[in-house]
Design a protein that fits this description.
8-stranded antiparallel sheet, about 35% strand, 5 domains, alpha+beta, 32 strands, Rossmann fold, Alpha-Beta Plaits, Elongation Factor Tu (Ef-tu), domain 3, elongated
């Protein structure tokens, strides 16, 4: 029997990375008896090995729990969300399936960059926010100070802030009562035609695609014929259920509930996140607004170290794509690295996690090329093209305008580090937007900056400048024209495509020289001099030489006339000159790897 909408509460937990979202979710499972002490393990909902290993949430995890409050049983649908900026789109998807959000802040670290970003996302989605202070059991907790920051940064009423310890369970009962009192029950009419939002999906080898849904109107039951509105495809429901936290079958779901269904859907491509599910016989008139598609922000080449592993890599990428729709890949060929794939990621952490999953689960040894972002080029004929790598840049003569992606980036830093941070941002072509003081000690510094300057090592630099106390969050705002150039690397007069990069003109010489120095160490000496050059078009901006190996041709001349030696030296010079014209330089794979590491 589906739960009546008045007794349902749909909510998610949002917070900065490491503020205790998954630990709080464990407490909910424990307090409601969904799992026993024996069954529960730390961060129960983080089911992926990588999530448990790194201690972070990568994908959202839904769970349905039942809780009795003042004699009435309530159905609580909780979605645990990731905290890292790369997985922001996961957060926005879970917000659309909820009416309320627990906004968690660490009682020692206070309000951080992602706390602010996620709070604004929830406000935009018109969710009821329950501000909560976690880790109050820590000996160095500063609850009153942090509540002051929440009031300053997010305009939160201090009287509404709840204090909990997700580790010890202190204050969790009060929080659950607040969810029932403050979060509104879901709107929706169980008698209306079926209208359900697809907010996630994953691929199961035995069941096909498992579709995660939030019902807005109507009901769904076994054997019902449904239609996916975006593609118009129709399927018959084979299984319905809820996550408790494992998949638990039931006969029907009604308006306001959250659950999953399977319908023998063989290909994950047929299921679009944000699509609307409706009844095939009695469809709803209007689809739900859905989501913006997550766009890859960082592109990088993935190549197997052993070229025979190419097909295995293709298979492994296709499997990964089944459970991660935000990741894209297409085959490409490189002179230096052979056959591989050009992959699109949401950010650097996403890229690192994909590589680790491939190497771990599929036992592949991989090489990653230097990451680069997507650029836009306006050609002289008026055509605008998207460029995902240096190889796609047209000749300079065809380019009217080179545009780069710009992000608005918020740094949350100690006030004492403002000067250092501004210097770092100016170095990276950042434009100052504003400063906001959370307290006399903490500041939000907002800059607009090219994404290419952010993705490499800005996070590491931020941590070192602020001694680990700084955090950052960014959002893409659009493309702006910039003085960008394609920097080619030439070895013995031949262009090496795999080493080309797109850089700002002012950095071209410095970047080119760094690559050449690294190459000089890695390429073996030949019997003739080898020139290494960095060039923009036909103009060389940096050069290094690898000296020739010399054979001592006069070793057999003991004494005697000097003219004999001169004759041998002249003959040797003539041979070297001829060799230089026809000689080929092999660039070893180690040289590519060394340059890519140096570039990162």
């Amino acid at each position: 029997m589906p739960t009546p909408t008045a007794n349902i509460r749909n909510f998610c937990i949002i917070a900065h990375i490491d503020h205790g979202k998954s630990t709080l979710a464990d407490q909910f499972l424990l307090k409601t008896g969904t799992l026993s002490e024996r069954e529960i393990k730390a961060q129960t909902l983080d089911s992926m090995d990588l999530e448990r290993e790194r201690g972070i949430t990568i994908r959202m995890h839904p769970v349905t729990i039942y809780y009795t409050h003042q004699g009435t049983q309530y159905e609580l649908n909780l979605i645990d969300t990731p905290g890292h900026v790369d997985f922001n789109y996961e957060v926005s998807r879970s917000l659309a399936a909820c009416e309320g959000a627990i906004l968690l802040a660490d009682a020692f670290q206070g309000v951080q960059a992602q706390t602010v970003a996620n709070a604004f996302l929830a406000m935009e989605a018109n969710l009821k926010i329950i501000p909560t202070l976690n880790k109050i059991d820590l000996p160095h907790a500063r609850p009153d100070f942090v509540i002051g920051e929440m009031e300053q940064a997010l305009m939160i009423n201090p009287a509404e802030v709840l204090r909990v310890s997700a580790k010890t369970g202190q204050g969790v009962d009060e929080l659950m009562a607040a969810i029932i009192d403050r979060v509104p029950p879901p709107p929706g009419n169980p008698a209306a035609p079926l209208k359900a939002l697809i907010y996630n999906s994953h691929f199961d080898t035995y069941k096909g695609v498992v579709v995660y849904i939030r019902l807005m109107d109507g009901h769904i039951q076994l054997g019902q014929k449904i239609r996916l509105m975006r593609t118009g495809r129709e399927y018959t429901i084979t299984e319905i259920g809820q996550f408790r936290p494992a998949m638990h079958k039931c006969d029907a779901l009604s308006a306001g509930q959250v659950g999953y269904f399977t319908a023998n859907i063989k290909n994950i491509e047929f299921v679009n996140i944000g699509d609307t599910v409706t009844d095939a016989a009695n469809p709803t008139a209007e689809p739900l607004p859905g989501y913006k598609e997550p766009k890859p922000m960082v592109y990088s080449g993935l190549y197997p170290v052993n070229n025979n592993d190419f097909e295995d890599l293709r298979e492994a990428l296709a499997k990964l794509k089944l459970n991660d729709s935000s990741f894209t890949f297409q085959p490409e060929v490189s002179d230096g690295l052979g056959f591989g794939f050009r992959c699109g990621f949401l950010g650097m952490l996403h890229r690192e996690i994909i590589q680790q999953r491939l190497e771990k689960d599929c036992d592949l040894n991989l090489v990653q090329t230097a990451p680069n972002v997507t650029y836009e080029i306006l050609k002289k004929n008026g055509e605008v093209i998207a460029v995902h790598g240096p190889q796609e840049v047209p000749d300079a003569g065809q380019i009217q305008e080179f545009r780069e992606p710009i992000v608005r980036i918020s740094f949350l830093i100690p006030a004492s580090n403002i000067g250092d941070m501004m210097g770092l941002c100016t170095e990276r072509r950042g434009t100052f937007v504003r400063t906001e003081y959370l307290s006399p000690q903490r500041v939000i510094l907002v800059y607009e900056m090219p994404l290419a300057e952010v993705i490499y090592d800005l996070y590491d630099k931020l941590k070192s400048v602020t001694h680990g106390y700084g955090t950052m969050d960014y959002e893409f705002i659009g493309f702006k024209p910039a003085d960008l150039v394609k920097l080619d690397i030439l070895v013995h007069g031949q262009k090496v495509d795999a080493l080309s990069i797109i850089v700002h003109r002012s950095n071209a010489e410095r970047r080119g020289r760094a690559i050449l120095k690294k190459l000089r160490e890695e390429i073996d000496r030949h019997l003739f001099e080898v020139a290494l050059q960095a060039a923009i078009g036909s103009r060389v901006v940096a050069r290094e030489n690898i000296a020739a190996l010399r054979k001592n041709v006069t070793a057999k001349c003991y004494g005697g006339d000097i003219t004999r030696k001169r004759k041998l030296w002249a003959k040797q010079a003539e041979g070297k000159k001829r060799m230089k014209q026809i000689g080929q330089v092999e660039v070893p794979q180690e040289a590519f790897l060394a340059v890519l590491e140096a570039d990162e």
